[in-house]
Amino acid sequence: MKKITQVVAALIRDGDKFMIFQRPESKTRAFQWEFVGGKVEDGETLEEGLIRECMEEIGVKITVGDIFMEVDHTYPDIDIHLTLFNAEIAEGDVKMIEHNDIRCITPDEIDNYEFCPADDEILKKIKKEF
What value does the mean pLDDT of the chain take? Predict the structure, then answer.
């Protein structure tokens, strides 16, 4: 049986917009857009993993809210269970530490960006419910 990797991400809203992040050239799925987050480490809760990832990747402390959506996805290199949390920036200013670019977009702008395939179902829900 294949190991499923637990991945967490943050849906950070700014009014009628939300933050998206472009993966760096050095990573798989280079230049595709995603929500900030990453793999949960052994011994961490999902929330702890997300708080750590946001500090490492964008330099802010976040407050983790409820779950927006969960998705299972199989990439050629990894099987993931992605949990997307509603989140707010509690302290700090967003910095581009890990990513190639950062944008704030409206749901109407989603189709202008190439997202990681695991985000497809999430983006459909955002278009409907945002």
Answer: 97
Using the structure block, give the residue that is written with the tokens 């990894």: 78
Query: pLDDT-derived band of residue 1, with 50, 70 and 90 as boundaries?
Result: low
Indicate whether this model's pTM tops 0.90.
yes
Q: Look at the domain 4-129 and name its fold.
A: Nucleoside Triphosphate Pyrophosphohydrolase (3.90.79)
Distance between the two ends of the chain, CA-based, in angstroms? 37
Which of 93, 66, 82, 62 has its CA nearest to residue 123?
A: 82
User: pLDDT for 63-92, tens place per residue?
Assistant: 999 999 999 999 999 999 999 999 999 999
Helix H or strand E segment including 58:
helix 46-58
Nearest Cα residue to 123 out of 84, 88, 87: 84
